[in-house]
Amino acid sequence: NKSLSYKEFILLKDSDPSVHSLFPFVFGASFEGGEVRGQKSGSMPPKANGKDKKKQEEPLEVKLQEEVKLLERARNDMQVEESFVHDKYKQIKAENERLQAEINKYRSRLGNATEDYADILEHRQEQIKAEEVKLRSMQAQVEKLDSELKQATEEVKNLKESNAAQAAKLEDASALLQDKENLEDAVRKQHDLIEKQSEELKYLRNKLEEQDKELNTARGQLEELTLKSSATTELKILFEEPWILQTSHARLRGDVPLDREAGSLCVLAGGKLLVIYGGMSRISNQTQDGLGREVAVLNVETMQWERPSTARTPMTSHSHTGTVVGRTKILVFGGVKGELAASDISILNTDNMKWLVPQVKGLEKPPPRHGHATCAVREKVFVFGGMSMEGALLNDLWVYDQDSLTWTNVTICGGHPPSPRRGATLSVTEDGRRLYMFGGNDGSRPLNDVYFMEIERLTWGYLPVHVGSQPEPREDAQSTIIAKYLIISGGCTQGGTRRLGDVQVLDLYSPRWECLDDGSYTVTMPWLKQRAAYSCFCGNKLYTLKPSMHEKLWELQVTEFALPEDIERLRNSKKRDLGVSEKLQLLDDAICGVSSIELQWRPPTKNTDRIERYKLMIATSTGVVKDVYQGKEQRFKITGLKPNTEYILCVKAIYDDGSFLWSESKPYMTKL
Questions:
Q1: d(CA 263, CA 220)
Q2: Which among 453, 446, 407 has a CA at the least distance from the CA of 426?
Q3: Kindly report the CA angle at 494 between 490 and 500, in degrees rounded to 5?
């Protein structure tokens, strides 16, 4: 029944929180006026009305027992509560004492702290004063900073304006950068386009070059076709007989040599190779040196020039002679080697394009010379005339024997020798019995006279020609002899004033000159060199080189002569090819057996329809002649003959008017 103040209850509750939960449960405590009050001991908590009514119905004794139990339980609870409260009181009292001691301690500390705080306050006041001084200084600094801030603000404003300007510039720069990027992109595109166009241009250039090559090839082919189409075939009447003159032209390619004077031109291998050696030019010393040492070879079948380096000579040479010996060798004699006239021999082998210098035997040898004439007769080479190292004209005759490697000075046994001269021509007849010399220059004028020498008798003779139009006097011409005709071509007139290209023919049996070709092409080529070797003969062909105006030997003209006897042979060959015959002929394709001969014959082409019959006659070795066939057939087989026996057969054609024609007799042999 003890009442607790609010403060005591709080202290009790804070020290033992379970007290707060026990009081309401055990005592039904409630707060009234700030105190906690419990019910009186032995009192029971009020019961619900329903239960009370029910209790009243129960027997009284049971009810009392229940109340006793309740009271005993309440007494026990109160005893526990009392013990608990007593202990709690002791705790609170001890706590109060402890708190009082702490309060005293705090009071002491408070006094000390007050003194300390006074000292601190005084110190703080001093600090405040110092801070005030400092504050005033800082205010001054703040004012200064405000001024600087204003100035900085002004500068910032200016900077902002500048930044705005810079931003505008930056924008402009950005726009320019964008324009630059656009331009770079456009440039890249243009570059790609240019590269593409460059590739296309390169492709077109290559294509154009190919087309140029094709055009040049076509132009060359056109020129070649034009040259080939300019080929002519003419029928000439010379010495009251027909001559056929066939002329063809071809463009030359390859390593085309330069035009030159005083070189040598030879044709070898049956007309398949043309070889030029040496010569001189007035262009420059370097060109002069190159021309004088080189050998140029033209393959007539391919029309390609070559200048083999293996054939170059150590020294330059001009005004020499080149003579074909055999099919593939050229014997070069005399001329001017370097600066001096020479009399040595060198041989060019065109198979390997190398030079050979024969070891000449004996002490006798011709003196050095140039402008002489040479001619090969089998194994011997004849040399006539020329000009000596001192400038004297010569008319001596020397013979070089290729077998014995010796020189012989020919002693003339008689006759009328030609006058000393340079630039003459020397040719040999087909039977090798005569040499013919034409033209030259005796130092005062060019000549057109003809001399001959009997090789076996070693006698000179003059050949007077009073019939026909005499050829123009000349030197450095070319000549050859075909059958009974001496043919000359080219050369130059007095002092080299005019180059000639005509072809003149002399009948050696009945001396008479005729013009085969007037050589009018020289009029259209004023750049021709007067002393150049442009032409040479091989058989019945004349090979003529024609230079361009740029001094390149780029055209070849081939003139082929068909003499009257050649025309007759061609006519007979054509008749045979066409089956035309004027005779009755036994054919050679007879079939000879052991006891038989089967043969056929060909009637003459004319009047074949007038033949009534053929009669085949046979003759034995004993002289017995008989006819074995008569009829119109042109083939018959003879049987009943002896083996390994020769029989003579001929056939007779009998015409409707009684005339007849015999074939030639032919022998036939039966088999064994």
A1: 28
A2: 453
A3: 20
Q: What is the pTM for the complete model shown?
A: 0.60
Give the pLDDT band (50/70/90) at residue 428: very high
User: Phi and psi of 209, rounded to 5°?
Assistant: -65, -40
Beta carbons of 661 and 638 less than 8 angstroms apart: no
pLDDT tens digit string along 599-612? 989 888 788 888 89
Whole-number Å distance between alpha carbons of 672 and 668: 13
CA distance 533 to 475: 11
CA torsion, ordered 112, 117, 120, 122, to nearest 10 deg = -110
Nearest to 347 by CA among 275, 452, 446: 275
508-534 confidence digits (pLDDT tens): 999 999 999 999 888 899 899 988 999
Pairing mode of beta strands 414-415, 459-462:
parallel
Give the phi and the psi of residue 490 in degrees, each rounded to 5: 70, -155
Contacts of 489 (CB under 8 A, 6+ apart): 477, 478, 479, 501, 502, 503, 504, 519, 535, 537, 542, 544
Lowest-confidence pick of 20-24, 66-70, 161-165, 466-470: 20-24
